[in-house]
Amino acid sequence: MRRSVVLLRLLFLVFIAYQEANAATLSGFVRDREDGENLPNATIAFDDLTLGTLSNADGYYAVQNIPAGRHALTVSYVGYQAWRDTIECVEEDQIRLDVELRSESIRIEEETIVTADRLQDELRQQVSVTSLQAKTLERLPSVGEPDLLRSLQLLPGVQSASDISSGLYVRGGGPDQTRILLDQVPLYNPAHAFGFFSTFNPDAIKDITFYKGAYPAQYGGNLGAVLDVQNKEGNRRRVSGRGGISLISGRLLTEGPLENGSWLVAGRRTYLDPVLAAVRRTGVDVPDYYFYDFNVKVNRSLSDSDTMVLSAYWGRDRLDFALDPDAETYFNILWGNRAVSGRWKRVFSPTLFGRFTAFFSEYESDIALSFFETPISFGNQVRDLTFGADIDYFASARHTIKSGLQLSRYAFDFASSFNRQSQFSLETNPLLLSAYAQDDWQITPLTDLRLGLRSSFFSEGNRTLLEPRFSLSRMLQPGWRAKLAGGLYHQYLQLVTSEGFSGGDFWVPLDESVPPGRSWQLVAGLEWEPSQRYRMSTEAYYTDLDNLVVLDNDSVADSDQTRSENVFKTGGSGYATGLEVFLEKRTGKLRGWLGYTLGWTRRTFPEINEGRAFPPKYDRRHDASLTATYSLGKWIASASFVYGTGQAFTPAAARYQLRDPATGIFEDRALPAARNSGRLLPYHRLDTGVRRSLSLWGNDAEFYLQVFNAYSRRNEWFVQYDTEDPATEPEVVKMLPIVPTFGLNFSF
Amino acid sequence: MKASFLSHLVHHLACATALCFLFVACSADRKPGELFGPSEEGVLVIDAILVVDQKLPDLFLKQTIAPGAQQTANALIVEDAQLVLRVGDSSYAYTPDPDSLGRYLPPADAPTVLPARVYTIEASAPDGRTLRAQTTTPQRIEVQEFLILDEESLEVDSQLALFSELGEEVYEVQTNQVTYREGLLEVRLSASDVEAYQLAIFNLEEDSPLLIDADFLEEDDLEEFDRSGASPPLAISDGNARLPWFGIAFEGRHKFLIYALDKNWYDFVRTDPDSDGGGGGGLVGEQFQRPVFNVDGGIGFFASAAVDSVGFTVNAP
Predict the structure, then answer these.
(1) Which residue from A443, A503, B151, B308 has the least number of CB within 10 angstroms?
(2) Alpha carbon of B178: minimum distance to chain A alpha carbons (Å)
(3) The domain A22-123 belongs to what CATH superfamily?
(4) How far does the CA of residue A376 sit from the closest CA of chain B (Å)?
């Protein structure tokens, strides 16, 4: 009954929106002048009216109810010069206006950029969302080459598990609680090199939208956060390219125009394998390892109103370690993602924009090892075939209605065998049908409200769930904005992973024996922009978690029980709460930000820690980051510093002696204290980098030198107890020391 | 005004933060003792394994010591404790072994352990500490066949003799002479309703040569190979237990035991971070966890199992 009332209210809002007077309408696309790329989230604002909107994910916008007369219009986008003109409107006029913006790199006018920033921020009504551009990533120091996920770890509320992990731990949630999308297609394991790098090619990225929490109804499927990455569509004006050579890999992107469209091809591959082969020839046992990824995109306008986009992603990691072929002892692992998508975008009318998508995403991992002729294998495949439709209806000057429908057919296949005996085997093909509707409602010129509802049906367990979402934003006075957002979230798919090793990750759906994970999120924020240069924001969040599961490692090794209640420890609950402060300087030679998070996270499982609450290892009381870039002519210097409370770990509380019950041999043992009741030393690290622009055979290029962990702080990673020696103390395993890297980027 | 204030604030904050953190960064070392949790020394530790159809076993009663303390026999033992084992209406008082501190011996006329019975142990130390645990013994199990399978086709290559057929002669007969890493060794068991099994392999020779020889193993690695080992708990739901070749490292006679576990044994080995037999601890967090002991007033295990075994001799290729 209650659900019906909510639906009726939403329908009523839609109805009201339809009823508003329909004066002139202005619509069109916002694009980059240089390469023709559509610009999402660009700001379209009438200077003399309280009218404005943001372009959608495809760069399309529509403004309704424009009164007759001449009006000054400004279109702006971060990093671009604002476009200004006067528009003559008559009643019921429908004006199509495609706007092209000049990039900042063509003519740097600081105030222009700032104006764009301010307009965009003032219109942005959502809390906990961060929009980043590839340029920002490039400037931050990194290990080897720019990495999206590692850069996001510098934001407040986002943590990493270790120096070698690019996994995102967002506001007290694990990596599986963040949905990661590439061009709207989910990637089930976005990691190369066992998590060291992400699968995102930095050259191909156009736009990054990162919801740290309370994400809107258009997204679903995960308990915590959403990372929505859009790749470039290709240069519509000329053939161009860019690439880079680092110590680890080489990458190349080329793009160019197509009849009424564009194409893009990007690839990246490590060249560690010949180096490793040379090391092996000296008699040292090292594995053979490489990774690669490819992105292809073709984009073509069929008419003024229709555009087709085809894209594909293909990434693989492979490690082969033949320890002794004669002894049949080896270790091979392969994993990767493949995704193909087709999208048809249509402007049905100036106020109705449709997007129809079909995609196929596949993740597979295969581990094959053998010790002295005893083969062991684990194989996992997740296939996701999805058809979806999204409609953006610019209903009035005050209402933008978004709705969508998505049908996904999954195929999960997991099998393991030991010594040529099949053990665990799971094959299941669930269906997920989801629909959403949300209204972006400008209640007053100073108050924005987003109301949304998402509904989903999952065939495993025949579950239908409703998820209300909301986001409220009010400008208190010029420069000050208060925000509040919240929602209900569920997760049907569960990642099974091990600490610090992402190569063997696999996903399984939760069946009818276990309810899906559930979270309630509430976020309140306050933003202050005292000037054009600075922005300060603070957000407090609380997430209530229930029906959590973790892999049950404490069952028999050859279990053939495939029900979720047998595979997982169930009935988990918990919470994450905290306060984030973000202070940013956005212009000038010196730019950067300071972020700080004060947080608490707890989990409770009946079968863990005797049912008592415990902090997960990524619970951090204090987490701070400071990033800065300084431009001086052709030189750009950058630095980032991170500091965090040490990770939680389980210390030993006693030692004792007990026989191995099967062999009868006495063993010295350590008795663990309460789970995660100890803390490693605080983590801190300084990364620095310097870049210099140069000309290479008439083309732009850039040489860079970066130093990871500049003062070589050996941060603690984990504690190992060795009880074989009666006098042995625990050993602390440390993370990476100083790692200098250098490379060259170029464009043509 | 506001911008100026914030500009100064940002610069001061940035400088102060950087300086503070660099100061803090001087050292990442600390005393290992700081890595221990609150000490739980002096907790009673029971160590008792009842095996169906075998005599009541010797028991061990010890205690925990502080995590950083030197581990010595004297620190671990509990002397002069009273231990009573009960089954049905019968009770058996254990007495300290004068030759081995911490070991307690059953009465001379102790009976054999029966299947499907509830056994209880009660221990009390002289200082008043008490401990109690209970086990229900599993039903008997029986090895029905011991086979060598072809590695590729998984067809039966040969059938080996069982103890029930030849007794200790199984080590000598031709059928039980096995060439290292040729075929798959498989034991087929009678049906049982236990939750889990555990397998153990024992090389019965004292100094037979090592069979394992691989390029990646150093001299030190070879010295660390044990003449016994145990598997993690296994369901063996089809009744066929396969012995992996990496469990065998030496030439000579081998005894392969199959334990059908009671709940206490199963709970302990499935949750024990040391159950791989490596003697090491775990990583941070999820792997280093307290085992499920099922002991009131202490830790350890009071567990039972039914067992059967096969014997064979491994020869170098």
Answers:
(1) A443
(2) 15
(3) Carboxypeptidase-like, regulatory domain (2.60.40.1120)
(4) 10
Q: Which residues of B158-180 are buried (b: 16+ CB within 10 A; e: fewer)?
A: eebbbbeeeeeebbeeeebebeb
CA separation for the pair A216, A167 (Å, rounded): 22
Q: Where are the domains of chain A?
A: 22-123, 129-747
CA distance B130 to chain A (A): 17
Q: What is the pLDDT of residue A120?
A: 46
Q: Which residues of B touch A656 (CB under 8 A)?
A: 43, 45, 62-65, 76, 299-300
What is the chain B residue with the closest CA to A326? B214
CA angle at A292 for the pair A288 and A297, rounded to the nearest 5°: 170
Strand boundaries in chain B, DSSP class E: 44-51, 59-63, 82-87, 90-96, 103-105, 118-124, 130-136, 143-149, 156-160, 177-179, 184-189, 197-203, 228-230, 240-243, 252-261, 295-296, 298-315
Quote the radius of gyration of chain A (alpha carbons, Å): 27
Nearest to A255 by CA among A271, A269, A235: A235
> ∠ CA(A512), CA(A517), CA(A522), 5° rounding?
150
The C-alpha atoms of residue A15 and residue B139 are separated, in whole angstroms, by: 71
Cβ contacts from A onto B, under 8 A: 294
User: B93 Cβ partners below 8 Å, 6+ apart?
Assistant: B82, B83, B84, B107
Residues of A in contact with B230 (CB under 8 A): 660, 662-663
Compute the distance between CA of residue A430 and CA of residue A224 in angstroms, rounded to an integer. 22
Q: What is the pLDDT of residues A40-73, one digit of tens each?
A: 888 888 888 877 888 888 899 998 888 888 889 9
B236 contact A CB<8A: yes
3-class DSSP assignment, residue A4: helix
d(CA A596, CA A717): 22
Burial-class residue B255 by CB neighbours within 10 Å (0-12, 13-18, 19+): middle
Which B residues in the span 55-74 are in contact with A, Cβ-Cβ below 8 Å?
Answer: 60, 62-72
Share of chain B above pLDDT 90, in %: 60
What are the structure tokens assigned to B269, written together? Answer: 């080995």
Q: Which three-class secondary structure state does DSSP give residue A414?
A: strand
Q: Where do the domains of chain B lie?
A: 44-136, 143-261+275-280+306-315
Q: Which of residues 271-300 of B touch A (CB under 8 A)?
A: 271, 273-274, 277, 279-290, 292, 299-300
Topology adopted by domain A129-747:
Maltoporin; Chain A (2.40.170)
ipTM for the whole complex: 0.88
Question: pLDDT category, A495, cuts 50, 70, 90?
Answer: confident
Selecting from B14, B257, B290 the residue whose C-beta is nearest the C-beta of A671 gives B290
Give the right CATH number for B143-261+275-280+306-315 from 3.30.70, 3.10.450, 2.60.40, 3.90.75: 2.60.40
How far apart, in whole angstroms, are the C-alpha atoms of residue A358 and residue A409? Answer: 12
Residue B94 or A696, more confident: B94
